[in-house]
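User:
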Amino acid sequence: MGSTAKRKRCARCERPLAQCYCGQITTLPNRWPVWICQHPTEGRHALGTARIAALGLEQCLLSPCPEPANPAMFPASPGLPALIYPGEDALPIEALQTQPVRPLLFLDGTWRKAHRMLMESPWLQSLPRYRLQPSMPSRYRIRRAPQPDALSTLEAIVSTLGTLEGDEQRFAPLLSVMDHLLEEQIARMGEAVYRRNYRRE
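Assistant: Predicted structure:
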């Protein structure tokens, strides 16, 4: 019975019942719709942040990514989605402030997997691309990133919406949910393991 109980998961957040965070989430309104193209393996990641966004935003669609990603994944849109992904040809996110509201598309996966999704999809490559310029380091402390300014999917979404909707703090409660999950995970792994594998000096 004990092992069976441990395997039961919340149908909404997909976390073990003892670690369900649904009670911490308040759904927030957002003018700019958020679309998330999720790598097939990322949905199984215990601390994936995309689901927090999907549960915490009124307009957020989380879709598993086929191979390759294509527009049939998402509903019809009056304008091309804006792909939020770094690159030499990417415009600053602020450039969207003078444009009509359109879906914001984020790739959810490790940096390597997200890059592969982009390279394998002519559709993704055809989309207008915009980049963030984070002013603070990532709070996601248990996954190694290729560069210091790399953000988790949730952090990128919160930063983008804060900029485009003119309120840097309105979406911050979603990050508090992420912080709570990370603290729980670090406590379970132990401080020694965390320091050895993830601690940033």
